[in-house]
Amino acid sequence: MTQPAPLLVPGLSALAPSYRAVLCDVWGVLHNGVTAFPEACEALARFRRDAGGIAVLITNAPRPTGSVLKQLEGLGVPLDVFDDVVTSGDVTRGLLAATREQPAFHIGPARDLTLFEGLDIRLVGEDEAEQVVCTGFHDDENETPEDYRPLLERLAARGLPFLCANPDIVVERGNRLVWCAGAIARLYEDIGGTVTILGKPHTPIYEEAMARVAKIAGEQVAREQILAIGDGLPTDIRGAVANEIDVLFITGGIHGADFGPVEAPDEALVRRRLAEEGLTARAAVPHLRW
Question: Could you tell me which CDD domains the record lists for this protein (predicted)?
Answer without folding.
Answer: HAD_like
